[in-house]
Amino acid sequence: MPAQMQLSAITLDCPDPLALAAFYQQATGLELHPKSDAEFAGLNGENGLLLGFQQVDGYRAPSWPDQTVPQQLHICFKIDEDLDEAEARLLELGAGKPDHQPHDAARARVLTDPDGHPFCLVRD
User: Fold this and answer.
1) Cα dist from 16 to 22, 23, 41, 70, 85, whole Å
2) Which of 55, 76, 103, 112 is in Cβ range 3.0-4.6 Å of 96 for a Cys bridge?
3) In this structure, is the dihedral angle defined by the CA atoms of residues 61, 64, 66 and 69, taken in order, positive or negative?
4) Reduced to 3 states, what is the DSSP secondary structure of residue 24?
5) Cα–Cα distance between 3 and 85 in angstroms, integer?
């Protein structure tokens, strides 16, 4: 029987880890990891999962849905609030909304964080 693997962290490349961590902290309510700094910042998630942000020189934002600069990863968040309200709140925090929306608008929305990483809001 193979060993069990448990996901412990997801890390996004970005130009300013503390700024991107602040966006996701306001968006999710997760707590900033106490050892966060300008090179690596993290948010403590549920069940020990860390959402990390790593400083990368020359960072290039994904160009989703165009693949000139591939997204490489996207995150989906289940929400229990109204999609329109969640979208408005996140846009106010600095999220973007791509013109291309591949899902039924009543069920899911694609937004981008301030550094261009696409993420989905899915109505729970």
Assistant:
1) 10, 11, 9, 20, 27
2) 112
3) positive
4) helix
5) 42
pLDDT digits (tens, 9 = 90+) for 84-114: 999 999 999 999 999 999 989 899 999 999 9
Q: In this structure, how many other beta carbons lie within 10 angstroms of the beta carbon of residue 90?
A: 23
Integer angstrom CA distances of residue 60 from 13, 16, 37, 121? 9, 12, 21, 23
Using DSSP bridges, classify how beta strands 9-14 and 50-55 pair: parallel, antiparallel or unpaired.
Answer: parallel
Which pLDDT band holds residue 33 (cuts at 50, 70, 90)? very high
111: tokens are 């937004």
The residue-averaged pLDDT of 15-35 equals 97
Distance CA(10)–CA(73), nearest Å, equals: 10
CA distance 86 to 4: 35
How confident is residue 49, by pLDDT bands cut at 50, 70 and 90? Answer: very high
Distance, in Å, from the CA atom of 34 to the CA atom of 29, rounded to the nearest integer, reads 15
Bond prior to 34 in cis (omega within 30° of 0): no
Query: 39: which 2 tokens?
Result: 């090179």
